[in-house]
Amino acid sequence: MRRYIYLTILVVCLGIPLKMNAQSPVAQPEVLFNDAPSLEVYELMMQRVPMVLKAINQAFTEQVPVRNTMPEELVTGEDGQFGLRELENLTDSTRMYISDEVLTGMIVELRDQNYEVRNLYVNIGLEDVVDTQRRQELVISFNRHGVLYGARFALPQHRYDEILSNAISLEDQFRRLQIVNYLERFRTAYNRKDIDFIAQQFSEQALIITGTRIIEAEAEPLRPNETAVSDSQYRLIRRTKEEYIDRLENVIFRNNDFINVEFEDIEIFEHPIYEEVYGINLFQIWESTNYSDTGYLFLMIDYENEDQPTIYVRAWQPEPFEDGSVIEMDMFELIK
């Protein structure tokens, strides 16, 4: 089925510098849980979560891939291999480790009878990491059998709580939990430079406009597909999905040892016609080795296939319009 989107106005973004945390990894982090869906789940997570954290620290200390230290029972089958790849990409790109001897985890039961464990704080072990990014909240996901099937960095806890508290029904709460999960996986894919995951998220006809800060004295003449905004401080370029993914992989990821993407001020809106389509407005902070930027990001995401959401629009602007507004869903006409 063909999908058409008519553009009214858009944009996308890029990304800062990076100091070493003096704390050291502990040999065996302990995890406590204040609550659990059942005694069976509690006992399973009490066993499995410390195993994952120990493997992360052992990989950091021995300077080997985390797949070399992960117990086999945690990564069996298709779920386990997928989860291992996500965790390995994340540990390789951040050199993360756990310095706390005791962590207090939070178990969240998902509707598919799988589980995610939140509130697990890790240190970023790369050199030259900016102070504000030395610690991140790690979320690890398990299937009902206790096999690892995902790893990502969390949104700030207050944002997580705020998004869920705005739910108007149990179904809306579930969908919001899905969106939080998706946003965390999406932003973490940039942190771990997972180009395959990012490419899978975009529709082949997605509207993608990238933005980068320029120095006016060094600026080249604008090309037909480019627009200058904010007194020529930014250059906006409309790209095809193929062009966007190629630049992301071969320029941005290749030239930055460290990338950290943060999402703040998240607002979620349901499409007025298609209940499976959501618009998401947020403030994005991009930090990487060679570039830093902040701006307002809009995403239009279709959840018709809940196992594989599709991004139709990714639009970024460096600052609000003169009237204080930002790019939002009613600026686009979607025909499915």
How would you characterize the overall build of this protein?
Strands 8-9-7-13-12-11-10 form a 7-stranded mixed β-sheet. The chain is globular and about 55 Å long. α3 packs antiparallel against α4 (170-191). The chain has helices spanning 39-62, 77-94, 157-165, 170-191, 195-201, 241-255, and strands spanning 4-6, 30-33, 102-109, 115-123, 135-142, 148-153, 202-213, 226-229, 234-239, 259-270, 277-288, 292-302, 310-317, 333-335. By secondary structure, it is of the alpha+beta class. A hairpin with a 6-residue loop joins β10 (259-270) and β11 (277-288). The protein has 2 domains: 4-18 and 194-335, Roll (Nuclear Transport Factor 2, Chain: A), CATH 3.10.450.50; 30-191, Nuclear Transport Factor 2, Chain: A (Roll). The termini are close together. It is built from 6 helices and 14 strands. The model is unreliable at 1-22 and 226-232 (pLDDT under 50).
